Every structure is written in C-alpha cells, then in structure tokens.
C-alpha cells in the first residue's frame, strides 16, 4: 500500500502515529495568569546535549498559551504506574481548570522556574523556552533549554538512571501504549583504522 497524506489513506484509522512509535510522553506542566495546567504530549523528544534541549508539539490550547505567557514549562516523565492518571489529564478541561487538582495529581514546585511539577515523577526537566514555531495546520512546536533536572532517588542505581525501575510509558498508534521493561546495552563500534 502507498498513499499520499494529502489524499487520505482509506483505512478506518490513520496509521501515521502507529508508524512513528513508540514515542516518549512528556507530561507538560505550566503556570500562567489562568492558573496551573498539566497535559500529556506524545510528540516530544530530546533535541540536543549542550546545553540540553527538548521539544514538544501540539495544538495551541492551554499548554502552549501558558508557555507563550510564562516562557517556562516542566516535562514530567510518565511511569507505567501513572498511565491512568496521565490519561485523565488529557481530557479537554475548560481553560483555567487545574488538571493537577481535577485528576488528583500531587503537585510540587520547580526550583529554577516558576512552574509546578508532578511530585514523585521519576524525572522532571525544568525548561526555559528557546523558541515556539508555528507549524502548518494547528500545531506549534515548543523548544526549551533544560535548566534543572529532578531525579527520583529510587531510579538511581550504581550512578545510572535506570528506566526499568519505573518503566516509562510510551505512546503507540491509535489508543495503544507500551512500557520500557527490557534494556539491551550495545556499544558503538570503534573507529575503523
């Protein structure tokens, strides 16, 4: 099968998000004049090391509006045990509703930015906005510099952040998710002589 996205796929459901998977989930928390907000984004990833940078992309509702106003956001990493409550925060609440309170998510304060974070998340990245790009359609890409990192102590094993301790949730296509439970170490080959 081949199809051009502009022409449609003719299937009952779009295969695009199933093809580009698994995708890590950023549980983005923000604060602005309308209050605190918490929403998951599966179009998310790291985009650089020095300084560390991340991006997420989505529609311009509360999260992007808050980021435009405040210039900061936090990325909370979603563990397997938090999948249901993370999903509850994806509901389309009216602007100004605090999803932390609505879904019963414990809240803590960030240390480098004026923003809430998910208390007890395996990791949280405190970010300052570098750029917001308006993409074709109704999507916006937010790029941020990571200025602070919280790591949950039980996830540190022998000086390494061990993802199998919390099993990060990842988005597949449709309504499907998966979890990282197995890790394979594979070192890069040495340079040829």
UniProtKB/TrEMBL annotation:
It is an enzyme of class 1 (oxidoreductase). GO terms for molecular function: oxidoreductase activity. Keywords: Oxidoreductase. Transmembrane segments: none annotated. Residues 20-163 form the Flavin reductase like domain. The keyword Oxidoreductase applies. Its EC number is 1.5.1.-. The keyword Methyltransferase does not apply. This is Flavin reductase family protein. It comes from Tabrizicola soli.
